Amino acid sequence: MIGVFDSGVGGLSSYRELKRLLPSEDLIYLADRHNAPYGTKDRDTVLKYTRNNIKALRKKGAEHILIACCTASSVFSLLEPEERRQVTPIISPAAEAALTHGKRVAVIATKQTVRSHAFREAALAKNPDAKIFELPTQILVSLVELGARDGELLPREGDLLDKIAGEIWTYKPDSLILGCTHFSSLGKELEARLPGVAIIDAAVIGARALVAEISDTSRRESGISTYTEGLKT
Ligand code: DGL
User: Fold this and answer.
1) Going by fewer Cβ within 10 Å, which terminus of the chain is more open, N or C?
2) Which residue's alpha carbon is nearest to atom 9 within ligand 1?
3) Is 48 inside any structural domain?
């Protein structure tokens, strides 16, 4: 069973991608609405929530866990090695995907994710020449929780996205990372406002990274059993 968690509805984009890629796998989704939003909390508080969610999903039987929340993924390195076991964070795969489009990368994310500079660090670890522009857009989290979706924006929501896209445009980025899983729901709106900029959805890329990890592990394990069986004969 695969466990997926977020502070709210954002991680459902990851959940849907997992369902598409692994239709027969059992999935369980945890929305920590009681503690939402995460992006306005400090690092230690987010770490505490992340630990609790991992524990709760394991208790329910999850063998692999996707942290379908960039804010929670930004504290991944602070978890104990035992807590990190079979847990996939989504920042690094998204940074890697963005860099395939060029080294100028814009990121929109929650306040706490931007404060952590986790996207910047992940991108620079892959390419030290990368230019990363991180923009906090916490307000979009509440908008999405209240129902804002691609193609269904109220005029004032459209105006807000125009303003945010205008600021992103000044960086002349090759790509824009939707660095909060809630922003998946606004990907098409942002794409329309930023022609020529590749939109990287951390929620979807993260789900694919977990699937790749699982298939790597099972390939390795079947390799090991073939090898040990070979030794026995
Ligand atoms: N969806 C989350 C993220 O990816 C958290 C948003 C929030 O609760 O502030 O960062």
Assistant:
1) C
2) 39
3) yes
**Report field, pTM of the whole predicted structure over 0.70:** yes
Average pLDDT over residues 212-231: 65
Range of the domain at 140: 92-202
Atom of ligand 1 nearest to the CA of 179: 4
Whether residue 188 sits in one domain with residue 213: no
What's the CA-to-centroid distance between 38 and ligand 1, angstroms? 6
What's 197's DSSP letter? P
Residue type (1 letter), 58: R
CA 174 / ligand 1 centre spacing (Å): 24
Q: Whose CA is nearest to atom 2 of ligand 1?
A: 69
Residue 215 has which token pair? 């298939």
Q: Are residues 192 and 182 in the same domain?
A: yes
Q: Is residue 54 within 8 Å of 72, Cβ to Cβ?
A: no
51 with 98, same domain: the answer is no
Reference 76, options 86, 63, 89; nearest CA is 89
Rounded CA gap, 12 and 233, in Å? 48
Q: How far is the CA of 215 from the centre of ligand 1 (A)?
A: 27
Q: What is the pLDDT of residues 68-121, one digit of tens each?
A: 999 999 999 999 999 999 999 999 999 999 999 999 999 999 999 999 999 999
Give residue ranges with CB within 6 A of ligand 1: 6-8, 10, 36-39, 69-71, 110, 113, 141, 180-182
Query: Are 41 and 77 in the same domain?
Result: yes
Strand partners, 198: 175
Does residue 233 lie in a domain region? Answer: no
Q: Is residue 230 one of the residues assigned to a domain?
A: no
| Domain CATH for 136 | 3.40.50.1860
